[in-house]
Structure prediction request, 814 residues.
Amino acid sequence: MMLPTLHLPALPKPLLRLTAALPAWPLTPPTSRAFAFAANLAAWPSLRELDWSHVHGRHFCVQVSDIGLQLFFTLHADGFRSERRSRADVTFTASSADFARLALRLEDPDTLFFNRKLLIEGDTDLGLTVKNMLDAVELETAAARMPAGLGHLVLALRRLALKD
Amino acid sequence: MPNPPLLELICPAGSLPALKAAVDNGADGVYLGLKDNTNARNFSGLNFDEKSLVEGIRYAQGKRRKVLMALNTYPQPATLPRWHKAVDTAATLGVDAIILADPGLMAYARKTHPQLRLHLSVQGSATSYEAVNFYRERFGIQRAVLPRVLSLAQVENVIENTDTEIELFGFGGLCVMVEGRCLLSSYACGDSPNTFGACSPGHAVRWEQTPKGMETRLNGVLIDRYADNEKAGYPTLCKGRFEVQGETYYALEEPTSLNSMDMLPEMARLGIAAIKIEGRQRSPAYVAQVTQVWRAAIDAVKKDRTTFKPLPAWQTALAKVSEGSMNTLGAYYRPWK
Amino acid sequence: MKLSLGPLLYYWSREDTLAFYQQAAEWPLDIVYLGETVCSRRHLLRLPDYLEIAEKLSAAGKEVVLSSQTLIESESDLKALRKLIADGRFKVEANEWGAVRLLAEAKQPFVAGPTLNAYNPDTLAMLADMGATRWVPPVEMPREMIWQMNQQMQAALPEAIRLETELFGYGRLPLAFSARCFTARHYNLQKDDCQFRCLDHPDGLVLASREGEDFLAINGIQTQSAKVMSLAHRFDELAAAGIDVLRLSPQARNMHRVVNIFRALADGDIKPAQAPAQLDRFMPAAPCDGYWLGEAGMAFHPVNNPITEGEPA
Prediction:
């Protein structure tokens, strides 16, 4: 019954190489494009029914501290859109493992914040809004709407971690 | 007549997944609020609209758990109908009780929905049996949540002199001030829990990593600056570091959470009706973790309170999710005061 | 506009306190509030002392009100409260709902203090029905809301019942109450053995941000603003919001000068715009007026910004 102490590995090297090898784009870094593409594919189907209207057009930055990755994107009625790294209204910073644990609902963002493992800079209200809205999405529902295979993988990973 | 409730576990639900996490992990009841300033966790993106509320009530009551709706801010003249409508919604959808702080709103609820069970919120600041009995006589409140400022001996004095069920906070964020009597937030940023429904609302908070450390500001006022290895706390003024007579320290309270698990046997002896877990602003992961631990502890103490001793693993788990990762017995333990 | 002297929020020596009220009898005040509202451990003056002061002030033509303790924790606190109410010679200011219950039971008229949290006309009308003759809004309540409260509450009450409105208009703002004593904490003392260090801080103990900005003031279990709330420069806005009484909160030095300036304002002898020039040097800290304007309490706007006729701005 005890809490999982999940140690997810950092992003595997091959994946990093893959993201770096994506075709260059004049305005947006390839990693941001890849992220927006993946997010639209995996997460958007379960996020789209929420009311994101007050978040539309706001600029987000996700910084993955351990691998020096910065992702810039905005959210619109049709999903995630990558942006060039000119500005961010709010920036989330954490390690790849901690972001993964957050995504799998294994970790509480406030706990990470208390332990200095998650930082929200810029428009705090925007950051907290997004955090709270994501919390309101049920992982099972989200997984069911992911592309075949991915959803199963996500839930399996979570189960594995909870057993750990 | 049924036995009076004893140590019901009441858990926070800031969202539908959090509600399900509480129910699935053994909460006897959940408390929740609507997506506006009618409750004291008015943070954007948090709380329930009518659709999720209907689903939440269905889920919890389907498993014979209670749903308590917090309407525990103070209605104001221009927006009073919003609170009345929220009371009506709660009654219509069939919540098990509403948690109120304002006497005017209690009068409305009593008159309009006489069948609806009323609880006195901690925001009502009732610290004596005279105050608790005021609400009981006037509005028929059936339970009172006491502010986190009384020692257990003082709680006992309340219990001995009222027929009202008493609910105490067991775990979570700790208001060091009497709830409902703290305007520190509005002094700094204009919004207080009483009227706005949030202490240190997001729009006024700024976190920034600087060469001197991570800085927390509320409407520009520096609340604290954390060195890289220091644990952080919520951006509330009572947990900030300030300078008093040349000395910089946590002048009001350290970033810390309440954890009263050591006192469960005593709470059982006193006949505390319910234990409340703080944290509607937190994620389903927190709710699941904390509910699990407290369910096990309450079951253990009900089985045999004389031999009850919190398991180290429980305390470790609770410490891990605590603000500042520190736990305190708070005012329940006399020397704290 | 009537002027009141609020209850003494600090802990002064017995001599200083007695001397203060002896002088206050001569000051141009209409109402004086007496009694310990903050901490039950403060005992240099007890109820009989306050009653004696009350008689003298009453003889000097002041209306006297006895203020009840805000945080009631123990049976002995309740005992003190019951005694205060039982005396019956003077009106009581109820600062929590236990006191309201006892006063209503005793059918005594009372003043509804600022910590009763009357934020809406329903609650206010209920207080009036239970015997309140005057109310003090929560110190954070903006002028528009006070105006609305009075409009709606009077509409809900029978014409014969008129509730006076008293505003906290001068002094360090009482912002929060705790079971914990922050003065004792500062001196690394337990509350039960605090050595009455509040005596050393007759205007509170200032707490500054780590950038050196004076922010709050510690007063035992009470937390106050470091800045001094002052509406002297907005004195002509008060009547339009329905304020009948302006409360001046005691400070250790020059209180009589503060009272005189507000009296001059009330009598029209000086204009609000002239007040700060006279008042500032007698204030223990910089002014603030944000709450009145519906902003952060610590904000300050020196320029006059009068409430518009009839309708709130």
